[in-house]
Design goal:
The chain is built from seven helices and five strands. The protein has 157 residues and is of the alpha+beta class. The strands form two sheets. The protein has a three-stranded mixed beta sheet with strand order 4-3-5, with no helix packed on it. It has a two-stranded antiparallel ribbon with strand order 1-2. Bound molecules: zinc ion.
Length: 157
């Protein structure tokens, strides 16, 4: 495999995230590990402030500056996700292309992989003259507790 292709392989676990840091020659300080562990455990989109608070609540001492610097370094190497919101930046564990479901009532952002039908992509390309190589969709809506429950029991069945 070409080295560039290896770098673009999606990261699917905490171990793979740590491996990617090592492949890139990034220093893996304790603090950097703490942040990666937290993001993979939480599987949410968190602000730097929330990450700082949660780590310190868990007794993992880390300073504000260290949190910010590590998040910047990890995001700039595409090891974690960074999204810009009006309230500030949020960080997530999934760094390859994915879509978001924005819950308007709970303010949560859920990650979801959505694949559009090839015909639709071809139609968009024909309309715009742009060759689509990637896409991310933002969905907005309200939580439906019953529907989620039903879906889960179907998955288990
Ligand atoms: Zn995300």
């Amino acid at each position: 495999m070409q080295p560039e292709a290896a770098l673009r392989k999606p990261i699917r676990s905490l171990e793979e995230a740590i491996d990617r840091c090592q492949d890139l020659g990034m220093r893996l300080s304790r603090q950097r590990r703490f942040i990666l562990e937290l993001l993979w455990q939480a599987q949410e989109h968190l602000s730097a402030r929330e990450i700082y608070d949660r780590l310190n609540q868990q007794g993992k001492e880390i300073g504000h500056t260290s949190v910010y610097q590590n998040l910047e370094a990890l995001a700039s190497q595409n090891i974690i996700e960074c999204i810009e919101r009006s309230e500030g930046r949020l960080y997530g564990n999934i760094s390859d292309s994915h879509s978001h479901i924005n819950c308007l009532d709970t303010n949560q952002i859920l990650d979801v992989y959505v694949e559009l039908p090839p015909e639709l992509i071809q139609q968009i390309e024909a309309q715009t003259g742009v060759k689509i190589t990637d896409y991310r969709i933002d969905f907005y809506g309200y939580r439906q507790p019953e529907a989620a429950e039903k879906h889960r029991s179907q998955e288990l069945a």
